[in-house]
Write a structure and sequence with these properties.
325 residues; Spore Coat Polysaccharide Biosynthesis Protein SpsA, Chain A; 2 domains; 44% helix; globular
């Protein structure tokens, strides 16, 4: 693998706020790679000209003739990619300057894999560090077993690089996925072609709840955890088809990955009754990681779903007042 073998595809619909930082991070690689911008037929008619004025011939800009949706837009990136390797970079994320170098180093240690990835910082709206994904115990670079990708998604955007021919051979990203089309592909790549990871921090994922953002919509309607568990179940079934002993057990998963109370506080006020009941049932089945979590569980059990919705409304009110201050 060389820098000439890589393309970074910056995907965008209508967000102006962060896209220049995303593109600049792709162009600022210490080992220069090809950079394309793929706009999914967004409503901002001036976006393309604005980007090209800033970056000129250093990038290739493509605008879809019609709206494709998140995962089909990734498939457009696949079709436009002229190199063996591709990184998908969302317009609100950005890469570290040594991303390409880290991927080359990883591929040299573990050649001929279908997927390589590393660690990410998580930053806030302003780009300030919020937290960093912890390193995986063991060697700095590791090959991973397919089963490790089955029940949880270890790949953090945008710290990923995959072989384009391998993804095409698997049929591309599943356009009908409601939420987890990326994880669906990572599991298939790890199973069919192998995967490896580095403990180097090579990307920055921006956490925010901007209106219109796909992740925001799925979180606010309460389907986020349900779709995640559905994908875990699908992955486990795929692994079993290939002779691996991977069982989907919702209770066991909730012991290791309990329903986040912050997720409920931020979003439960807008859930339908059905999804409020479903998410509360996951809360009750989760293993409590600390005393505050246990207290929230006990109050939710004793006072019912109305308590969770009321607590979420109060949380939102406090957050709104803080932003105004």
């Amino acid at each position: 693998m060389t820098p000439a073998d890589m393309t970074i595809a910056v995907t965008v619909f209508d967000r102006r706020d962060y896209i220049e930082q995303a593109i600049a991070s792709a162009l600022a690689q210490t080992s220069p790679v090809r950079v394309i911008v793929v706009e999914d037929c967004g409503p901002d008619e001036e976006l393309q000209s604005k980007v090209l004025v800033r970056f000129g011939s250093r990038i290739t800009y493509h605008r879809n003739s019609r709206r494709m949706g998140l995962f089909d837009n990734w498939n457009v990136c696949l079709d436009l990619c002229e190199t063996p390797w591709l990184c998908l970079l969302h317009d609100d994320d950005f890469l570290e300057p040594d991303f390409a170098d880290a991927m080359i180093e990883l591929a040299a240690r573990f050649p001929d894999k279908g997927l390589y990835y590393g660690r990410c910082h998580v930053v806030d709206v302003a780009g300030k560090l919020a937290w960093t994904a912890p390193p995986v115990p063991g060697a700095a670079c590791q090959a991973i077993e397919p089963a490790e990708v089955a029940l949880c998604n270890p790949v953090c955007f945008p710290a990923e690089l995959f072989r384009t021919d391998s993804v095409k051979a698997l049929g591309g990203f599943r356009a009908s996925s409601g939420f987890s089309g990326d994880w669906d592909m990572w599991a298939k790549l790890a199973l069919r072609y192998g995967a490896a990871r580095t403990n180097r921090v090579i990307g920055n994922y921006r956490s925010h709840d901007t209106e219109g953002r796909g992740t925001t919509r799925v979180a606010r309607n309460g389907k986020c955890v349900a779709l995640t568990l559905m994908q875990a179940k699908r992955n486990a079934a795929l692994m079993r088809q290939h002779g691996m002993d991977v069982a989907f057990d919702r209770t066991e998963i909730l012991k290791s990955y309990p329903m986040p109370t912050r997720f409920l506080l931020e979003n439960a006020w807008g859930f339908s009754r059905r999804f409020l009941r479903y998410n509360c049932s996951l809360l009750f089945r989760s293993r409590s990681p600390h005393c505050a979590y246990l207290l929230f569980q006990l109050l939710a059990r004793g006072l019912g779903q109305r308590f969770v919705r009321a607590a979420s409304r109060l949380y939102q009110l406090r957050s709104t007042l803080r932003r105004r201050e």
